[in-house]
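Appendix B, Record 12. Input sequence as logged:
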Amino acid sequence: MPITETLTQNAKLYPTDVALVEINPQELETHRTTWKEASLIERSPNDSFRSEITWSEFEEKANRFANFLLTRNIRKGNKVAILLMNGLEWLPIYFGALRTGALAVPLNYRYTAEEIKYCLELADADVLVFGPEFIGRVETIADQIPRVKIRLYVGDDCPTFAERYQDLVSYCSSRLPQIPISEEDDAAIYFSSGTTGFPKAIVLQHHCLTHSCKVEQNHHGQRKDDVFLCIPPLYHTGAKMHWFGSFLVGSKAVLLRGVKPEWILQAVSEEKCSIVWLLVPWAEDILDAIDRGDLKLEDYQLSQWRLMHIGAQPVPPTLIKRWKQRFPNHQYDTNYGLSESTGPGCVHLGVENIDHVGAIGVPGFGWQTKIVTPEHELVKQGEVGELAVKGPGVMRCYYKNEAATAEVMDEEGWLYTGDMAMQTPDGFIYLVDRKKDVIITGGENLYPVQIEDFLRGCNAIKDVAVIGLPDTRLGEIAAAIIETKQGFSLTEDEVNEFCKGLPRYKRPRKIIFDVIPRNPTGKIEKPKLRERYCGARLVAQQVGLSE
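Logged structural output:
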């Protein structure tokens, strides 16, 4: 069935139950109010610290947006781009777009103006919904995106090049639009990139999203009385598809806007959260704060917290050992996936397999896996090859890119992930290396070619290669190996100053001066650089053989 029917079901079964809570702890610091003091204040509907909506209100918001879009002739096949920070409007807008038969197109909030423009054009977006954080970036490209005729602004003080979302949608009908949608219809476009740094548009169908709900609920056993704490951005398949398990059973989710350790524990305590999905850096920060004495566990109500799971990057086994020392009663799971597989869960460790920490796990619910040679032949047990997955969550295609689709999918429905893996005799899969050069730092993808191209704009640089180095907190950090031109001098401080022209998250964390090795065809030999600066330590950490 289409995923929109789950919302209809929840609104019918649990109309007055809370569906979503939004918490903005930064507001407390601004007003010098404690969390406990704020919880005693009678809240208004416009409370900037904590707000919530029921399942009935969720559906009404989605229906109003859908009916508005229909008045603007948005129908099946149209694309609705969403450029918002996490908040109560995000998911109703997403589902409202789906209820017209259109495709929802989430955009990374870290995109530059040019990247936003590129993705809007690539996806053939007809509508752009954006928030106040993006006014400057959207204004920069407003005259360059003529196809995007409907530009909706969510917030106050609407810019002149857009229309205010709230003013338009509030007057529309809250009735369910009668648009026939099947599970085979296209539902969403998500973006992913390879080593070139140019995003590809991933088309997911309704059955992909519906299966993702079943995968998550099967793996983590969400019940109606569970409360899910969602911290990562909703544009990311990891955040949304982990929430899907809660969505399937109609349980409450809390959207926390902030990642400070004390905010996370306070949210768990005050909202009685039982399931929390963390990135490695956030888990490390929580443990470090506890070790320093900055956080005292006895100050929080945490007994209901039953599951902590991590994804988006390799998880150091030492982190989980530390976590279990502090939280011995927690279940733990890690999940592997990619946007082309509708997010996490095509491989997962499983809460019952904590003795295999270091592995990404076994095939997920409804999924098959295999490890193959470059010719797509099965490798022998224990040998390294490319991980391939097959299941109901595999994307339909890369939008308008048959060649790229054919590179990663075969006629039997296998998706070739580009990740190198090995499987042990007991059936557990370990990632060994990435076939792609993408660097995953703190759960975010960095694309070396983009950084390399920027650095080559420095007059003193002859050649440059960017690789990932292992980092216990972020998983990896970007390191720039730089070869200077003859007769030129360059210091690390000068490189860092030059890199201020990049977004902060794309700036290399380490600068190394060395000769760049290239093969006879002119390609940079990055495996040599990784061996030189990483050695066997990275591989050992990833398969759990070293701490």
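DSSP finds 18 helices and 26 strands in the chain.
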